Structures are given as C-alpha cells and as structure tokens.
Amino acid sequence: MNHSGFDPTCFDDALRQRHATAVAHVSARTQAQLRHRLAASTTAPRHVVRHRMAWVATTACAALFALVVGLQLRPQPTPVPSPATVLVDDSQGDANTAYASLDENPDLYLWLASSDAIALASE
Amino acid sequence: MPDSATTSDAGPLPPATTVADSLEQFLSGIGARAFRFAELGLRHRDDALDAVQEAMMRMLGYRERPPTEWTPLFWSILRSRIVDMQRRRLFRLQWLTPAAHGDEDPIDWTDDTPGPARIHDGREGYARMADALAALPRRQREAFTLRIFEELDVATAARVMACSEGSVKTHLSRAREALQRQLEDWR
Hints:
By secondary structure, chain A is an all-alpha fold. Chain A has helices at about 10-25, 30-75, 85-105, 105-110, 115-120.
C-alpha cells in the first residue's frame, strides 16, 4: 500500500528534523526544572535509605522494649507440690482417718452387739 | 506491510546516545529528549516533568547495570510511567475533574531565539506534528518516536515496548501511513 512518490526516508528525516529542533528549543524554565529534578532524584535515594534505616532501628528498639516489658509482666511460676505426692498422702490420710474413726467410735461395736444387728444379719 | 516500512527498517540505525561515563551524566544528557517524549504522550508540561523525574529516580536503582543497558532501560521505564499517568489521568478526568488540562498549552518552547517568525514557524510546525502524533494510537506513537526520533534499532524498540520486533515494524508502518496522510505537505 505504498503511495506513489512517497519516500519514507525523506519523510522520516523531515519529522526527525522537526523533533531535533523541538529538543533544542526546550524552554530555559523547563531545562532548569529538569536539572533541578535530576539533582533531587540523585539525592532522594540516599534520603530514602537513611529514612529506611531509621525506621528499621526504631522498629527493632520498639520490639526489644515490648519483649522486655512482656517478660517482666509475665506471671512468675509458683512452686506446687507434685500431684502424685499429694494423692498418696491423701489416700493414706483417708485410710488412716477411716481406721481411726472405727477405732474411736464405740457405738459401732455396741450396735454390732445389739439385737438389731443380729436381726438384720438373719434377714 | 508496505515496502517503505521494510526498506526503512532493514538496517540498524546508529544509537541516539553514546555511552555515558556515569548514570548522572547519562540522565542529564537524555533529559530534554525524555521530556519531549513524555510531552508527546501526556500533552502536559508538568505531567511530563513528573514522568521524567520518576523515570530518573527509578533508573538510579539500576546503577549497577552496564551502561550499554541504560538506554533501553530508561526508555522502558519512562514509557511505563507515561502509560501509568495516562491511565490515572483517564480515571481522574472521567470521575473527578472533567475540565482539567483544558487550557494548558501542551508545547513547551523557548522564546530566546532571535526572530519571532522563526520561533513561530518552528513552534507551529512542531505543534502540528505533535497533534498528528497525538492522534495516533499509543503503540503506533511509541513505535514511531522510539524508532525515528530516538533512533533505537528494532530490537531495542521491541524491548522498550515489551513486544516483538514484528509488532514494532507493524506499528511503525501504520504510524507512518497515518502521519503521511495528516502531514501531506511534508512528504
């Protein structure tokens, strides 16, 4: 679909020449702003890195402080007797109590010797 | 694809910029061209300056890359920034400020050249070309400006535009056809 008499190279050159003229005629104000923004761009990453390091340090300090406070506020474990010992003691205590109650209660033996107990046993 | 595109795209063009010694020197040298590129895409001076500055700031993160990669990297970053700003502006214009950018003169031009007639001719000619480029679809405008104005070769332009080399050639030929129709007297 080539147009007759159309030379793409000449056409491209004409447009390229217009563009080159435009590049050469960027206003002084814009050129100054480009220089200023380039300078700002080259210094910005250092600020970013510095700010990032400050944030990391602040975060680390805050985390360390929170850890220390958390450790301080954690309830201290109290010494508790071992459950096995308690159980053994309780069982022994209960048995002794039962035997002692039998030894110390004469009513049981009086009842066993009574006629009520013999009647109950014979039923 | 027309023959004109294939003949014009056959050989690699010389690079538009030489390898700079430092990244700051590279960015300083490419600033005006980057501004014109952003201005063509955004049609707003301050937005174009913002896009260029953001691209420069991001480019500093690639300081460790070899200098030969700076050119495609920078144009790729700048193109992405322009696309982002175009999308943001589309949302803003549709929903928030429909009348924004209405009275803004899209062409920045210096006035310190002697001869008002020459100033007018140069500015009017570029403004007409910018209007014709603005009427193109975005990909066609990118292909044309990167290949013809920035003189990137096809492979580099494809890398910048994140597409295949064939797509670049197709976009370029369609852009050239459209521009040729709009700028009939420039042929």
